[in-house]
Amino acid sequence: MFQFIQQQNELAVLLTQMEHCSTYALDTEFIKVDTLYPKLGVCQINCNGQIALLDGTSLNLEHFWHKLFAAQQNIFHACGEDIDLIYHYADQKPLKNVFDTQVAMSFLGHGLQVSYQNALKSCLNIDIEKDQTRSNWLARPLSQDQLSYAANDVLYLVKLADTLKTDLKAKGLYQYVLEDCQNLTKEIAMETPLAELYADIGNYRHNRRELMQLQQLSIWREQITKALNQPRSFILKNATMIDLVEKNPRNNFQLAQIKDMRPNVVREHGKTILDLLKFLPPEDEWPLRMARPVKSNSKEVAPKVDTLIENIFIQTGIPKEVLLRKKWLHAIYEHVVFHFDEQDLPDYLLGWRYEILTKPLIELLRQDIEYLATQMKVSN
Q: Which residues form the HRDC domain (predicted)?
């Protein structure tokens, strides 16, 4: 039913077989508990119905990763963490040839995060066990239950994908799904510039001094977590960083009172953290205040926005939560109010959504610019 490959010569045979297969169904099992980067336990592949489980602890998979980038299509379900792992091990990105069955199901009205287990039950009436999800995939030997679980994750994946593709093509949505999958893998490949990391932690309530402190702390945290290969939360949680800039501790005793501050971090990095809070560049180099989030459109424009989205849903059948995410709408608000360049909008909004959604939505919101600007008002 499946082959567990642990030797390099066995992998060489699989690599030859992959030459005769243009589409692969894939999954990974890994551990990411006390490290920043995932540790691969098993990589599963379904190639022309032949299932192989690759031992991530013993094999050199360099040539295997190259095959994935050269494939016609790679099929995953909920690919986010798998793609992140592949980027790390392959040292190559982005992977542009992905079909994600979870993304496909969202277009067909199953919600944004349907599980693989529920997807198989819903589309193929197949039941599988998911009792090994929290297994230790680095331990050897792996149990028969673990190996069977891993194999099941790709056993039915091609059939699920084929079923979904048929439905999507009948509705004229297949190319839209492929584009969203490509945007997803590109998004995973993008690294936030160091100087902008603070923007994911701070908010409009923070003054410029606090944002400058957050910027320095976030740069330092990113550098040290990568150097030590530790999760960011092992050094400083986001909530801890916010507490730091709001309470401004002056010594290690005060530092130890900060929310979720680990004693070992105080011992090993206390002076560095206090210096990052105290020694700041000139004020004209501090980040600008952040805009307030928009709570609503005006009573005149809000119904028009709702009607626009409802009409697109009626015309295309694409669920509203797939058409427009909250963070994309926020990006459009900023584009309209602050006159940002259209090319700076998320890629999702510049592809198939542009003519039917993005462009008419921008035109509508420009009628509401004064109301939006009042809500997003940036404090001094």
A: 207-287
